[in-house]
Amino acid sequence: MTPQRRDIGQQYQNETKYFREQSHWRMNASTDSAYPHLSDSEASSTISVLPLPPAPQADLWEILKKRRSHRDFSLQPISFNDLCLLLFAVQGVTSTQNGYLFRTAPSAGALYPIETYVLVHRVASLRSGLYHYHVAQGYLELRRLGSFERNLASAALDQTMVADAAVSFIWTAVVHRSTRKYRERAYRYIYMDAGHIGQNLYLAATALGLGCCTIGAFYDDEINALIGVDGLSETVVYMGIVGHRLSDERLQRR
After folding, report:
1. 48 domain residue, yes or no
2. Residue 180 belongs to a domain with what CATH number?
3. For residue 51, is it within any domain?
4. Tens-digit pLDDT profile for residues 60-77
5. Which pLDDT score, from 0 to 100, does residue 24 have?
6. Strand ranges (DSSP E) for the chain?
7. Are 185 and 169 in contact (CB under 8 A)?
8. How does DSSP assign 36-97, residue by residue?
9. In the chain, % of residues over pLDDT 90
10. 189-215 pLDDT, tens digit each
11. How far is CA 135 from CA 38, 108, 192, 198, in A?
12. pLDDT tens for each residue of 215-238
């Protein structure tokens, strides 16, 4: 067997990034955005505790048939209860065994490298801003107040649907959680883990009557800067947006 280079996983991560100066990308990407890093003075300790509200009655097989990617959203806020249910769907703790916090989505080796950040645009009873989801304690920590949806849309290759959605989920990987066991092969498992989480978001949003679309096209470094991670030990790997869908009638009027 050919020996593996120790840094091949990190090289893959770096060399598959999008950069604005790459002219081959077909979208007309804006170049006027700048993303401020979080500072200690700007961070806030304000915490929103997340209760688990009653879930809607939904048939799994019907939800699977209805699941679609929706890219047209109204400006109606989603409820705080809906956000709580979405967060439980993507990474909620379902049981604790031998020190492991088992969750709604599987993870290779139960190592759970994926972290969830939430950019709140329009959620009832919750201020707009960047939040981090603390899985073990089940709460959202406010990292920064403000409306950053247009910044995020610009970083997502100018996909305006990101700015239109009510909430954006940004998933990062804390790489060493997986590489300490699986070494370079960990990068495969990290993306599998993110995919499981993304599908859970789709199914939960569908059950709640909301629209959802996951996103893999973005400028990695810009989103890393926006949420305040270094892009090496922790780096963005996936995104998902949720909001109220525009009705077919309203879409026809556009």
Report:
1. no
2. 3.40.109.10
3. no
4. 999 999 999 999 999 999
5. 41
6. 47-49, 93-97, 100-103, 114-120, 129-134, 139-145, 167-174, 211-215, 234-243
7. no
8. PPP-TTT----EEE---PPPPP--HHHHHHH------B-SPPBPHHHHHHHHHHHH-EEEEE
9. 71
10. 999 999 999 999 999 999 999 999 999
11. 21, 17, 19, 16
12. 999 999 999 999 999 999 999 999
Q: Token digits for 16?
A: 């598959």
Q: Is the pLDDT at 252 greater than 90, yes or no? A: no
Give Cα separations from 241 to 44, 77, 100, 204, 229 (angstroms): 24, 13, 29, 12, 20
Does 9 map to a domain?
Answer: no
Please state the domain count of the chain.
1
Query: What is the mean pLDDT of the segment spanning 148-155?
Result: 96
* Residue 124 CB contacts under 8 Å (≥ 6 apart), including other chains: 77, 78, 79, 80
Whole domain around residue 163: which residue ranges?
61-253
Q: Which helix (H) or strand (E) holds 225?
A: helix 220-227
pLDDT in tens, 78-99: 999 999 999 999 999 999 998 8
Give the CB-side neighbour count of residue 144, counting CA atoms within 13 A. Answer: 19
Per DSSP (E only), the strands in 135-217 are 139-145, 167-174, 211-215
**Which residue type does 79 have?**
S
Q: How far apart are CA 127 and CA 77, in angstroms?
A: 12
> Rounded to a whole number, what is the distance in angstroms from the first to the last CA of the chain?
58
Q: How far apart are CA 200 and CA 87, in angstroms?
A: 10
- The CA distance from 231 to 248, in Å, is 40
> Residue 37 domain-assigned?
no
Chain CA centroid to CA 229, Å: 14
Beta strands in 24-161 (DSSP E): 47-49, 93-97, 100-103, 114-120, 129-134, 139-145
